[in-house]
Amino acid sequence: MYDKPLPVVDPESAPYWSALKDKRLILKHCRDCGRHHFYPRALCPHCHSDALEWSDARGTGSIYSFTIARRPAGPAFKADAPYVVAVIDLDEGARMLTNIVIDDVEAVRIGQRVTVHFDAVTDDITLPKFKLA
Amino acid sequence: MTSVAHAKALGRKAVHVRGYGEAHTHWTIAAMPDLARLTAAEVAGRDAFAMAGVGPEAIDVVELYDSFTITVLLTLEALGFCKRGEGGAFVAGQRTAPGGAFPLNTNGGGLSYAHPGMYGIFLLIEAVRQLRGECGERQIKDAVTALVHGTGGTLSSGATCILSTR
């Protein structure tokens, strides 16, 4: 039984969640300005174009910033504490808020290389988390 | 808010809006362009100073939204009162305490005065009271120009207002 909050899958984000279920991380890519963004949107946040397409991400990046949560964000997260909440700079240029999956939370540093780790939390939802590369 | 003519007719010291600016940069915190930089405040402050035709050195009283202590330091840097990364040193040594060299959050700030979640209006009220000379013991002597800055969202929105009795 998974009792943490689950994402609301809507038509705009359905392809993203569907790809994760197949262990693929995909990002929106703008055909006009060439940049990627996250979270997936209908308009490019960089140039406001709607000429967007889904593209496979490499699933690699580096830690932009992080914090160690020693007090859980509610009872459902109690067993996880201490856990790492991090912002990752994906190599495509987009930034993601996620978790670093690691036993020794003290080992995490800004700038460390990370790779995506697919956490299938329910039959329908797989969350993209990261591990140190 | 009223016209200059009406304000004069009311017989109280008029406080004028000399400049304002506002900006919004992101929604989720992960999309903030730089976690250590209030880009929205930089844009809002630049526009407000340009409209008022003054710079940070012309401000007698500063009222900043203080959701967290870091918010104040980043706002001071973004508005140009000190350089980036120097906000901590800027407020050290009681410089912003009552009687200090840099009058800041003279109502005590959100932490000690009130922080209902929509604190911005209290900043405007305190700035107007200071410029009208109604502040009693905490009155900043000869205060003519005040700056008010509000921050909203997840450090994502900024609004600056410059008020003056001249």
Secondary structure blueprint with pairings:
The complex is a heterodimer of chains A (133) and B (166).
Chain A: H1 14-21, E1 26-30, E2 36-37, E3 52-56, E4 60-69, E5 83-90, E6 95-100, E7 113-120, E8 126-132
Chain B: H1 4-10, E1 16-24, H2 39-52, E2 61-64, H3 69-78, H4 87-91, H5 109-112, H6 120-132, E3 145-152, E4 157-164
Parallel strand pairs in B: 2-3
Antiparallel strand pairs in B: 1-4, 3-4
Descriptive tags:
heterodimer; A: about 130 residues; mainly beta; five-stranded antiparallel sheet; three-stranded antiparallel sheet; 1 helix; about 5% helix; about 40% strand; globular; B: about 170 residues; alpha+beta; four-stranded mixed sheet; 6 helices; about 30% helix
Protein architecture, described:
The complex is a heterodimer of chains A (133) and B (166). Chain A has 133 residues and is mostly beta strands. Chain A contains 1 helix and 8 strands, in the order H-E-E-E-E-E-E-E-E. In chain A, 6% of the residues lie in helices and 38% in strands. In chain A, the strands form 2 sheets. In chain A, strands 6-5-4-7-8 form a 5-stranded antiparallel beta sheet. Chain A has a 3-stranded antiparallel beta sheet with strand order 2-1-3. The longest helix of chain A has 8 residues, at 14-21. By secondary structure, chain B is α+β, with helices and mostly antiparallel strands. Chain B is 32% helix and 17% strand. Chain B has 6 helices and 4 strands; from the N terminus they run αβαβααααββ. Chain B has helices at residues 4-10, 39-52, 69-78, 87-91, 109-112, 120-132, and strands at 16-24, 61-64, 145-152, 157-164. The longest helix of chain B has 14 residues, at 39-52. Chain B is globular and about 50 Å long. The A-B interface holds A 39, 45, 64-65, 87, 95-97 and B 28-31, 35.
